[in-house]
Amino acid sequence: MTTAPVRTSHLSPAEVAEVLELARAAGDADGTYPLSEHVVLHVRHGGDRPAIHLVIRDRGQLVGYAHVDTTDVVEGASAELVVHPMFRRRGLGRALVVAATGAAAEHDPAGRLRLWAHGDHPSASALALSLGFRRVRVLYQMRRSLFAPIDPPVLPSGVALRAFVPGQDDERWVAVNARAFAGHPEQGRWT
Q1: Residues whose CB falls within 8 Å of the CB of residue 85, separated by 6 or more in sequence, listed in order
Q2: What predicted TM-score, i.e. pTM, was given to this entire model?
Q3: In CATH, which superfamily holds the domain spanning 6-130?
Q4: Is pLDDT at 109 greater than 90 in this prediction?
């Protein structure tokens, strides 16, 4: 097995199926699907022209994959990657990140690359930190059944709840939002 990723700008239908199966296997093992909907749509349907796919194979089997998106000229390239659970701890994730960093540098003189890690897997975090990346954002996805009843809220004494009133609540809403998201790169700057 070689740990050097092979780079391509297009995946064949067979490769698409392999990437999705690899992601499914990792998701089953980790409890979190490793690729965003954005990347899955790009894998399935082609996506942007400058997208870069990095693949690692072992005896023909796809065991590592990274998607590098170089279209964001403001924030720089982003990458998502996955390594088959049976092939982890062999340097494949590191090889994919290093190759993604090189690919990003070709498109951005500043050499910026953002890594997305779904599920906050400890090994993914450790790998990113060991390669000089730092955590700048944490996203939470919250869900509830649309069929389960919603209990009415229990409000403290003296608190009233009403709908937002445009023209009346705007300034206070922006101020509360700025305080609540002071450390958030986008939300905290609303005016």
Answers
A1: 25, 26, 29, 30
A2: 0.76
A3: Gcn5-related N-acetyltransferase (GNAT) (3.40.630.30)
A4: no
